[in-house]
Design goal:
The protein is an alpha+beta fold. It has two domains: 11-98, Helix Hairpins (Orthogonal Bundle); 107-248, Heat Shock Protein 90 (2-Layer Sandwich). 54% of the residues lie in helices and 15% in strands. The strands form two sheets. It has a five-stranded mixed β-sheet with strand order 2-4-5-7-6, with helices on one face. Strands 1-3 form a two-stranded antiparallel sheet. Helix 1 runs antiparallel to helix 2, helix 3 (111-121) packs across helix 5 (150-167) and helix 5 runs antiparallel to helix 6 (216-226). The protein is globular, with a radius of gyration of 23 Å.
Length: 252
């Protein structure tokens, strides 16, 4: 009898501890959602207010730089203003992308065409431009069509590919299927992602880069989540990082 009571008490304690842990995890998730919602509202207001005067600033700085003699200090200072304006413009665009509405516009589209469009939109760093094939592509196993929001998926892939070619070209992009899921796989030849960084990888503004907004992966993760999918991150075979995006077959 005593043994039975002890077993019962042990089971009860374990269940209580598990329930409390689940409740704490749920509360952390709710708090994260509240912070993201607040950040989104604030970011949207700031981005909209900054966008127009920033465009004017950039345009006038470009005109001024074009009027000054090349190679002289005034020209270099004007070009510095242009560079900083472009950097701020990138930040505002990333903020607006992050806080965009969650509504998707699905249609039966060609995943390979979306991937090729994303590759064409990638701004290649100098190290990648010197390579004969900075982004290799493997679409032999790609399906002919899938229900996706083409614009959002293109944006997500562009963000992942930008990271890949910056981390360590050449990058590789592949499309396959796994059961009823479409799989995009992006790999690079960089140093990889430290295990300590992986839990924070998709948090807004988290970055180890000296350049960048820290919003690219956050936007990518949100796009995937809106499609009901998931992003997996691990070490690529042969070194570097591998991002696998798994997307279920949604309705058009």
């Amino acid at each position: 009898m005593a043994i039975a009571l002890l077993v019962f008490a042990t089971v009860l304690v374990r269940r209580t501890l598990a329930r409390e842990a689940a409740e704490r995890a749920a509360e952390r998730d709710r708090e994260r959602d509240r912070r993201l919602a607040s950040l989104g509202e604030m970011s949207a207001v700031l981005a909209h207010e900054i966008r127009n005067p920033l465009a004017s600033l950039k345009g006038n700085a470009q005109l001024l730089a074009g009027m000054l003699p090349a190679g002289e200090r005034p020209r270099a200072k004007a070009e510095r203003v242009v560079d900083e304006a472009v950097r701020l413009e990138t930040l505002t665009n990333d903020l607006l992308a992050f806080v965009r509405t969650g509504e998707l516009h699905r249609a039966a589209v060609d995943p390979t065409a979306i991937l090729r469009d994303a590759i064409a939109a990638v701004a290649l760093p100098e190290a990648a431009r010197a390579l004969p094939e900075p982004i290799a592509i493997d679409v032999a196993a790609a399906p002919a069509s899938w229900s996706l929001d083409a614009g959002r998926i293109r944006q997500m892939l562009t963000n992942l590919l930008d990271n890949a070619v910056s981390a360590g070209p050449p990058a590789r992009a592949a499309i396959t299927t796994a059961g009823d899921r479409l799989v995009f796989e992006i790999t690079d030849r960089g140093p990889g992602i430290p295990p300590a960084d992986r839990p924070h990888l998709f948090e807004p503004f988290f970055t180890r880069k000296t350049q960048g907004t820290g919003l690219g992966l956050a936007v990518a993760e949100r796009v995937v989540a809106l499609h009901g999918g998931a992003i997996q991150v691990d070490d690529a075979p042969g070194g570097g990082a591998r991002f696998r995006v798994l997307l279920p077959r949604g309705e058009s």
